[in-house]
Amino acid sequence: MKSVLVTGAKGQLGKSIQKIASDYPQLHFTFADSKDLDITDPKSIAEKLSNKAFSHCINCAAYTNVENSEKEPEKAFKVNSQGVRNLALLCQEQQTVLIHISTDYVFDGEKGSPYLVTDTTNPINVYGASKLEGEQHIQNLMSAYFIVRTSWLYSEYGKNFYKTILQKAKEGADLSVTDEQVGCPTHAENLARYVLDLVVEDRETYGIHHFTDEESLSWYGFAQKILSENNLADKVRLEKAKNYRTFARRPKYSVLKK
Ligand SMILES: NC(=O)C1=CN([C@@H]2O[C@H](COP(=O)(O)OP(=O)(O)OC[C@H]3O[C@@H](n4cnc5c(N)ncnc54)[C@H](OP(=O)(O)O)[C@@H]3O)[C@@H](O)[C@H]2O)C=CC1
Ligand SMILES: Cc1cn([C@H]2C[C@H](O)[C@@H](COP(=O)(O)OP(=O)(O)O[C@H]3O[C@@H](C)C(=O)[C@@H](O)[C@H]3O)O2)c(=O)[nH]c1=O
């Protein structure tokens, strides 16, 4: 039986994997949150990853606060770059296949058409730069790995754009949302199924992969969809924001091509 370690298990992807784990009875799961396993601490990783206990490790641990990453870049790099390096070293030593999740924000958004896995990266914010460094450590240190880039994750768990918009709408706030960035919102459960299928199917197509849901939208378009799915479209005022103020720059167009 394949044995799968899931790090960052209390984040939205980690929880989505836990939700569907019973659909994969052929896999044995160990879920580790940041207290059980801190990827910035090599000793903490080695306590779990020893004696070749795991065939696969799905790394859901990350520093995902895009705005705070600009203010505290060292925190983003510590987890998304150094932490991932620690994990890659141990996985390589233990012959554990690493399935690592990365982001559309490794691209600058200037291409204007969907990004291929072979396209040049050029992050324009700290979070994207830290995630790119994480990817590079894995590529340099490992032979059996999947780097799965995805985008605009949402789910019932954690903090995400879907929940923020819904919350604001339910409070009766007027909404002002940018239409200046386009990407593919992706339900975390669909990504969870994709990564678990990678494990089950024993694929050895190692390297970088892109996985997103199909529809590309602006954040404004996504907000429209969220309101209409929740029968709130007639009840809330939604306007297109021009120059919505943020600390971090974000790619204008970050659709990923599978
Ligand atoms: N959210 C999104 O829109 C997107 C996310 N991604 C990537 O997908 C992956 C999953 O994202 P998502 O589930 O949304 O992220 P979340 O922020 O919901 O979860 C991340 C988890 O990582 C944990 N964590 C943070 N630091 C450490 C550490 N040092 N050691 C162990 N665990 C740690 C956090 O725990 P705690 O809260 O206890 O610190 C948290 O539970 C990440 O790699 C992210 O970069 C890619 C594209 C889009
Ligand atoms: C909440 C809100 C956001 N916005 C804008 C700000 C920003 O430009 C855009 C998205 O906002 P957020 O800050 O919610 O999303 P952001 O944190 O940028 O989301 C990103 O997270 C990381 C982890 C990823 O890897 C990316 O794929 C992407 O999902 O929408 C509005 O215009 N109006 C609003 O009311």
Question: Which helices and strands, and how do they pair?
Answer:
Blueprint: E1 2-7, H1 12-20, E2 27-32, H2 42-48, E3 56-59, H3 66-71, H4 73-93, E4 97-103, H5 126-141, E5 145-150, E6 153-154, H6 161-170, E7 175-178, E8 182-183, E9 186-187, H7 188-200, E10 207-210, E11 217-218, H8 219-229, E12 238-241
Dtdp-4-keto-L-rhamnose binds next to α6 and β7.
Throw out a few tags for this protein:
258 residues; alpha/beta; Rossmann fold; 6-stranded parallel beta sheet; two-stranded parallel ribbon; 12 strands; 36% helix; 19% strand; binds NADPH dihydro-nicotinamide-adenine-dinucleotide phosphate; binds dtdp-4-keto-L-rhamnose; dTDP_dehydrorham_reduct; dTDP-4-dehydrorhamnose reductase activity; EC 1.1.1.133
Condensed summary:
By secondary structure, the protein is of the alpha/beta class.
Describe the structure.
It catalyses: dTDP-beta-L-rhamnose + NADP(+) = dTDP-4-dehydro-beta-L-rhamnose + NADPH + H(+). Catalyzes the reduction of dTDP-6-deoxy-L-lyxo-4-hexulose to yield dTDP-L-rhamnose. This is dTDP-4-dehydrorhamnose reductase. Pathway: Carbohydrate biosynthesis; dTDP-L-rhamnose biosynthesis. It holds the Pfam family RmlD_sub_bind. This protein has 258 residues and is α/β, with parallel strands linked by helices. It has one domain (2-158, 186-214): 3-Layer(aba) Sandwich (Rossmann fold), CATH 3.40.50. 36% of the residues lie in helices and 19% in strands. The chain is built from 8 helices and 12 strands. A 6-stranded parallel sheet has the order 2-1-3-4-5-10, with helices on both faces. Helix 6 crosses helix 8. It is globular. The protein starts with a strand and ends in a 17-residue tail after the last strand. The mean pLDDT is 97. The structure holds NADPH dihydro-nicotinamide-adenine-dinucleotide phosphate and dtdp-4-keto-L-rhamnose. Dtdp-4-keto-L-rhamnose (TDO) binds next to helix 6 and strand 7.
